[in-house]
Amino acid sequence: MNLIFMGPPGAGKGTQAKRIAAAYDLVQLSTGDMLRRAVEEGTEVGRQAKSVMDAGEYVSDDIVVAIVSERIGQPECSKGFILDGFPRTLNQAHSLDKVLASKGLEIDHVVMIRVDDEKLIARIAGRFSCSTCDAAYHDQFNRPKHKNVCDICGGLQFSRRSDDNAEAVAVRLEVYYGQTAPLLPYYEAQKSLRTVDGMADIDVVTEQIKSAINAHGSD
Ligand code: AMP
After folding, report:
1. Which parts of 44-192 are beta strand (E)?
2. What digits encode the pLDDT tens for the residues 105-127?
3. CB distance 58 to 88 below 8 Å
4. Contact 117, 173 (CB under 8 A)
5. Contact, 110 vs 56, CB < 8 A?
6. Relative to the CA of 155, which of 98, 113, 174, 194 has its CA 20 to 30 Å away?
């Protein structure tokens, strides 16, 4: 089963993608994570992407299409994958269609996680993640069970994203509504769009996604 997770920044795409990937034995392919890794490793892609990401703008279509196409062809993705944060422009969606067709693959469901803007801003402001295993937490909504200790791996180091500041978040929301929201009618027309209410508790959203996927069946 191959999925796309869509939604504005802070909707919970990454958190939910991790849970659904574990439940259905899929690989999570987050372009944001791949780009952040490239920045950390100081690769050419990372050097090109850093300032664009810090400003809240989109990295060029060519870069993200190349990194995604490379991954979906690999054996680790043979049981299926979740594209988390890709495609984000119509051009990326068209390129993805071509890449999938060339590999004889298709997308089974596009899961749209819908959240109001005020809630998005509150969520982004408080989020942090484990520096070791990348598990996602929030100061208010999702704290580790033991203060400063990761529930998943026991790690003691946490970090916050450099683009989770008010200025970059305002740009990220504007860019999302301008460039990514137009993908919704595109996937609606393909009858693959499943919209869930991302305002609910994390566990409830996970259940909604599972129900939406199961209700529509999959390959
Ligand atoms: P995310 O972790 O999904 O919020 O992505 C963080 C940042 O990475 C975005 O604000 C963009 O700068 C960049 N990025 C991630 N995915 C894409 C994409 N599909 N197209 C363009 N830029 C992207």
Report:
1. 81-84, 109-114, 127-130, 136-138, 158-159
2. 999 999 999 999 988 988 898 99
3. yes
4. yes
5. no
6. 113
**Could you tell me the distance, in angstroms and rounded to a whole number, from the CA of residue 205 to the centre of ligand 1?**
22
Report yes or no: 88 and 94 within 8 Å, Cβ to Cβ.
no
Q: The tokens of 133 are what?
A: 């295993």
- Hey, what are 218's tokens? 């999959």
State the distance from the centre of ligand 1 to the C-alpha of 60, rounded, in angstroms: 10
Give the residue carrying structure tokens 């990514």: 180
Tens of pLDDT, residues 53-95: 999 999 999 999 999 999 998 999 989 999 999 999 999 999 9
The model's pTM is 0.91
CA 26 vs. chain centroid, Å, equals 14
- Residue 130: name the closest of 148, 113, 115, 117 by CA: 148
Residues framing ligand 1 (Cβ under 6 A): 9, 31-32, 35, 52-53, 56-59, 64, 85-88, 92, 163, 172
Residue 119: partners with Cβ closer than 8 Å, 6 or more residues away: 10, 199
CA–CA separation, 180 vs 88, rounded Å? 5
